Amino acid sequence: MADFSPAAKPVLRPQNPNFSSGPCAKRPGFTLAALEGAALGRSHRAKGPKAKLAEVISRSRAVLGMPADWRLAIVPASDTGAMEMALWSMLGPRPVDVIAHESFSAGWATDVVKQLKLPDARVIEAEYGALPDLSRLDFAHDIVLAWNGTTSGVRFADGDFIPDGRGGLVFADSTSAAFAMALPWRKLDVVTWSWQKVLGGEAAHGMLALSPRAVERLLTYKPSWPLPKIFRMTSGGKLIEGLFAGETINTPSMLCVEDALDGLRWAESIGGLPGLIARSEANLRAVANWVEGNERVRFLAAEPATRSCTSICLVIAAPWFKALDAQGQEKAAKAIATLLEAEKVALDAGAYRDAPPGLRIWGGATVETSDIEALLPWIDHAIDTVSAQV
Fold this sequence. Notes:
Elements: H1 47-64, E1 71-76, H2 78-90, E2 96-100, H3 103-115, E3 121-125, E4 142-146, E5 148-149, E6 154-155, E7 170-173, E8 190-194, E9 205-210, H4 212-220, E10 234-235, E11 238-239, H5 254-269, H6 272-291, E12 297-299, E13 311-316, H7 319-322, H8 326-342, E14 358-362, H9 369-387
Parallel strand pairs: 2-3, 2-4, 4-7, 7-8
Antiparallel strand pairs: 1-9, 5-6, 8-9, 10-11, 12-13, 13-14
Helix pairs in contact: 1-5, 5-6, 6-9, 8-9
């Protein structure tokens, strides 16, 4: 046992215990009444519903500050679908470097090496909690990365490591970064995200943003492998322009579209991207202030500059926990998360299944800092309670 006094059971509880990393908490004040304007029972190709899809694109561009010469489309299958579309459509003409520092970026490495079987591919790895040596990247190659590691809580601090005169394209899975971090658009070429993260939308819809260089790749390169219909962004050697004006490849949920619009309007009402970033960073600061001097926990991300303000990943640092074997640590971490859920103070707050045992607290913009602050004493209490049971 550690030499500190056990934390008493707190009295104050978070008003919203939803700290899941996806789908994430709805925006403050959300009710189903916000969806009453949904174009239900309508064809998504009809004038009104199509206008709503186009509005999601235009409002997303505006809130994110996307450059005017970029294209943005709504695509199937969430962020995964958006990244798969990009990788399978555009990789091949150059060698590829994949940065794999957590579960989802490791998944893109699997796509590149084992599925596409690209011969000139390198996987540049790092353990959970760190980024690899970025000096190893060759920017004559295409680069594939996750801007924010959803399962590790590690993000890129900035885009300074990417040269302006790069030869290859940079593919950035940004699903837990978009709307909470300032993306360096001019350093990137393909950016993807999903609706169910920072703005708290519903699942199954992805967003695919393309720079002019990425569009050029689509128009000048044809993969040697066949592309399924839902991956195709060109026809007859030309870009399918309708994709970037709300003409989706498959049928979207107009209920989810209305929900996405509600989230975007809320984002605008709190000051757009600066307001969203400020809320997420305030959540990270609240956790950082609590972690400092706390013998029970530490951040999984070792470097403060790379700690995520959305997927805030924690490992248990208490001496009794570190004395357990791997199986014991996994069991104890699950017990801590289970206790938090039983008390209804933090739902879905366990670490990702492939990550080191611990907790993952979503700190995106829809989460109130007051709820984060109310949760933290409960984590102390849960850790101490489980320690007495080990």
